[in-house]
Every structure is written in structure tokens, then in C-alpha cells.
User: Fold Conjugal transfer protein TraD from Ensifer oleiphilus.
Amino acid sequence: MTQGHKREIHEKTILGGLIVKAGLKNADRAFLLGALIQASQIPVGTVEHDRLSALGTQAFRAEARARIKL
Assistant:
């Protein structure tokens, strides 16, 4: 297995983990792709982009706090 292939597998695993963390593991693939396409069209620095980034940051922090308590 090439280094590039290993990197690609790692990236896909990380991205799949984000889907699980968001509670969308059982969501329809077309829905997920549509949501991601729409999110990709939100310009960086806009209120909506900042809102979604803050939401994600809060989720990561909550997960980290939960891991520490274990």
C-alpha cells in the first residue's frame, strides 16, 4: 500500500468520524452530500460560516471534556 493510499484512507476515516459525531450515521447519502455541498458554498468570514464553526468547536470541546471525565 502506497503512502498516498494510506493518507487517503486516513482522511476518509476522519471524515466518516465527523459524520458519526454529528449524529448522521444513518442519514441518506444524498442528503449528506447535499448538506456538504451547501456548506461548501458558505463563504468564510460570513455570519453563517462563523456560526457553524462555533457550533463545531463547541461539539469538539464537549467531546474532549467527556473523554477527560472517563
